[in-house]
Amino acid sequence: MKKETQHKREGFSSSIGVIAAVLGSAVGLGNIWKFPYVTGANGGAAFILVYLICVALVGLPVMLSEHLIGRHTKANAVGAFKALQPRRPWFLVGGAGVLSAFLIMAFYTSVAGWVYAYIFKAAGGALLTAKPEDTTLVFNKLVSGVGEPLFWQVFVLLVTGSIIMAGVTKGIERVTKLLMPLLFLLLVIIDIRSLTLSGAGAGLSFLFKPDFSKITVSVILAALGLAFFKLSVGMGTMITYGSYVDKNENLPKMAIKVALADTLVSLMAGIAVFPAVFAFGFTPDQGPKLLFVIIPAVFNSMPFGRVFMVLFFVLTAIAATGAMLSLLEVPIAFLTEQYQWTRRKATLLTILGIGLLGSTATLSNSIFATVTVFGKTFFDFYDFATSNVLLPLGGIFIALFVGWQWGYVKVKQELSNQGQLANDGLARVYLFLVKYIVPIAIAVVLFTGLK
Ligand code: PHE
């Protein structure tokens, strides 16, 4: 009998496929939903500037580190550390990553459920109103319900679980490769409409004219957390995906491309949202509902708005699904490789666990509205605990591992594809970053920001 773990390990089949899958992990609700609302809540342009610095100096090196570890060991987040350091507790970093995947999925599937539901609301015409006050009502009604949001969350889990069961190359690669360009194109169209609304200028200055007095430690922590969440780093997703990447892939180049494209999509989502926020007389600090109340109003003010709106939510649902596949792959690669579970069993039990935990996030606006953990609803707690605590902590340890534990010569070999790439200079900058800058910067921001 052939066990799942004894198979020839599956991998991404082409260079384009790799980029598409890694980008498919990075691009998701983080760009379309989270980036705009967190930017709105933290003062706009100055926050974006801090965010960009976090991506370049912290997020990018951590992503590269994860790809190096994953490709070198060809193992899941826990197994990778065990392979490199069998006698030290570094595997706990991977273990924390598996936990993070559960916690992120708990609220991510809830928001993805709203997006799936909005496809049908948009198609049915329920969102066809130019008044954000009315779209706010529609949103509040959805999230304060019980049966409806739970139904969509379960639906999301079943869709994602089925794709996962189809396997890595067939499932993940195929879906993501097709649809990224389409999402990009649609964002261009929405941006144009948003920018041509009268009163759009105020939104643009909110996005691009920094007011440095807005920067506080908690703003910096939010930017750092968003950078981790956005790039899918700090929890082993990129170790897991890195483990499917071919020996000849140029990893630094790939990480840079992915970070650039991901940032571009986030900025484009910001340009879709903020000019409209100001044009329609809203305030930018609406919190998690921002996208859901503003975007329908934008579509309403353009020709064929209903068609485009349906398309927008379909593509956002697909982007969210690509990200969820990568989140699920972390516990599933762990369970199939470390415990020899079949892919089917691992998937089913994982989505069951996420469904149970996730229902507490979904019901945070109804039954559990008054239940709090550290002063936050379940939904906000899962979000905060992952983005602003667990992922940055994971980032510290991943950087320390590559910088101090793995060994200079071995890191350089992996980084240069065993000497095939001439990237000595880059290796030096990278190792300096992961040795000193990344761990120190994160530690300082975490300790001061959490106080
Ligand atoms: N980067 C994804 C997004 O922006 C979310 C994610 C976080 C995916 C962590 C995997 C791991 O939506």
Tags for this model:
0% strand, Hydantoin permease, 451 residues, mainly alpha, binds phenylalanine, single chain
Brief sketch in words of this structure:
The protein is an all-alpha fold and 451 residues long.
> Number of helical segments?
18
Look at the structure and give the CATH class. Answer: Mainly Alpha
Point out poorly predicted stretches.
1-7
Radius of gyration: 21 Å
Strand content: under 5%
User: Which compounds are bound in this model?
Assistant: phenylalanine
Overall mean pLDDT stands at 92
| Shape assignment | globular
Please identify, by name, the CATH architecture. Answer: Orthogonal Bundle
Tally of distinct domains: 1
Describe this structure in words.
Mean pLDDT is 92; it is low at 1-7. It is globular, with a radius of gyration of 21 Å. α7 (147-165) crosses α14 (305-338). Helix content is 76%, strand content 0%. By secondary structure, it is mainly α. It has one domain (2-449): Hydantoin permease (Orthogonal Bundle), CATH 1.10.4160. The site of phenylalanine (PHE) has 15 residues, from α1, α2, α10 and α14. Residues 25-26, 28-31, 104, 229-230, 232, 235, 237, 323, 326-327 line the site of phenylalanine.
Helices and strands, with pairings:
Elements: H1 15-26, H2 29-41, H3 45-73, H4 77-84, H5 91-124, H6 132-143, H7 147-165, H8 168-195, H9 201-208, H10 217-231, H11 237-242, H12 251-279, H13 290-300, H14 305-338, H15 343-362, H16 378-405, H17 408-415, H18 424-450
This protein binds phenylalanine (PHE).
